[in-house]
Amino acid sequence: MLKQWGLSNDIRTTTGTTISLPISFLNSAYIGLVTICRGNSLSQGVLSSYISNLTTTNFYLYFDKTGDNTTNKIYWFVIGK
User: Rounded to an integer, what distance in angstroms lies between the CA atom of residue 78 and that of residue 55?
Assistant: First the structure.
């Protein structure tokens, strides 16, 4: 079992970004978890972030926020084998 984690660059709300894993999983990726880094941002609205297309080498990271088109960094954690 291999665990990997990181912090994304700023992601704009209407787009996402591809995250390349530092080490490729040999067999499969099992699960990916994310949480939003709010930092000093006190903006209002509903924030959400999620992963799609998790593979052995990368995944796509999305960030959504109601109200405006700001950016945020996202902490991510994935487990695979």
Answer: 10
Distance CA 77, CA 3 (A): 7
Report pTM.
0.85
CA–CA separation, 66 and 24 (whole Å): 34
Span between the terminal Cα atoms of the chain, in Å: 5
pLDDT 10s digits, 53-64: 999 999 999 888
Token pair belonging to 79: 């487990």
Encoding tokens for residue 12? 């704009």
Please check whether residue 63 is in contact with residue 17, taking contact to mean a CB–CB distance below 8 angstroms: no
- Region of residue 53 (left: phi > 0; alpha: psi -120 to 50; beta: else): left
Strand segments, DSSP code E, in 1-81 are 2-7, 11-12, 16-20, 29-37, 47-52, 58-65, 71-80
